[in-house]
Amino acid sequence: MAQVDTVRGPVDVADLGTTLMHEHLFVLNEEIRRNYPAYFDEDARVSHAAAQLGKAVERGIGTIADATVIGLGRDIERVMRVAARTAMNIIVATGIYTFSEVPFYFRHRSRRTTASGEDPMTEMFVTDITEGIGQTGVRAAFLKCAIDEQGLTRGVERILRAVARAHLLTGAPVTVHTHAASRSGLVALRVLREEGADLRRVVIGHSGDSRDTGYLVELADEGCLLGMDRFGIGMPPSLNWRADTIAALCERGYAGSMVLSHDASCYIDWYAHDEATAGNYTYIHDEVLPALAERGVSQAQIDTMLVANPRRYFSPS
């Protein structure tokens, strides 16, 4: 039986259950948190996150994929503290999140600076997947990068190609943050295809921000999964529009090309926000699934999007 690494160790892919494919526990500026710690109560935030995941477990959600990577304040030790207090499977990612430039750390580190000849970013990603992140022993199980409305900058392209190389070397699947309005998912797929990536193991994140079914079908026909996410976090378009789009794609036979999620965080320091409503991982079950059922989406199609497609994504080819 194929297994996938989680924060608490390997789990059979068949045991992942209902899986939310693009979530976060914490999105932080770690420099600010470390130097001005008064605003961030570590124990309270960990307790809150564990409680929110507990509510999701009670609703039958078995797994979340935490897409927090370098650039978003990933702290695996904090995630481990949360995982120790919940039955939820938490799968973590490796990669770099930027819309433009590579982090300064990598600016003057290149293939020429490594004995292997690989981009040092690729080396880091491969180590995170095969050996573990830092000294935690927790192994990442998927790769995450981004291409937003700024398009394919030199930095973004370098990261995309480094991610693709790590995917080829390890077999780990890929999730890409994209900007639906500029159709940047197509650009991401082109670069990944050029590197030889298996597009069946790629999620084009935030595809659900688009109502353009032509664009979404064009993506899906490449073999990738569409991330129909950002439910319940106040991002346009509305729930009704997002549900209409999913239902229309299901009617056309594309349930096997979609995964569902919220892109929620238990705490994100980009905005002022109410802790009591942060990390709502049950909105899909509370609001989205009833809306889809009203539009004729079957339970079998819902199971495909929430169970079968994530299982396939995390299964070796």
Structural write-up:
This protein is of the alpha/beta class and 317 residues long. The protein has a single domain, classed as Alpha-Beta Barrel (TIM Barrel). The chain has helices spanning 30-35, 42-58, 76-83, 104-107, 120-130, 154-170, 184-194, 213-220, 239-251, 283-294, 299-313, and strands at 3-6, 9-12, 18-23, 26-27, 61-66, 89-95, 142-147, 174-178, 202-205, 225-228, 258-260, 267-268. The strands form three sheets. The chain has an eight-stranded parallel β-sheet. A hairpin with a 2-residue loop joins strand 1 and strand 2. Helix 2 (42-58) crosses helix 3 (76-83). The two termini are 13 Å apart. 49% of the residues are buried.
Radius of gyration: 18 Å
Oligomer: single chain
Spatial sequence of strands, sheet with the most strands: 3-5-6-7-8-9-10-11
**Which fold name is given in CATH as the topology?**
TIM Barrel
Please tell me the CATH architecture by its name: Alpha-Beta Barrel
Q: State the separation between the terminal residues, measured CA to CA.
A: 13 Å
Shape summary: globular
Count of individual helical segments: 11
Total domains, how many? Answer: 1
Largest sheet: 8 strands, parallel
| Computed structural class | alpha/beta
Uncertain residue segments: none
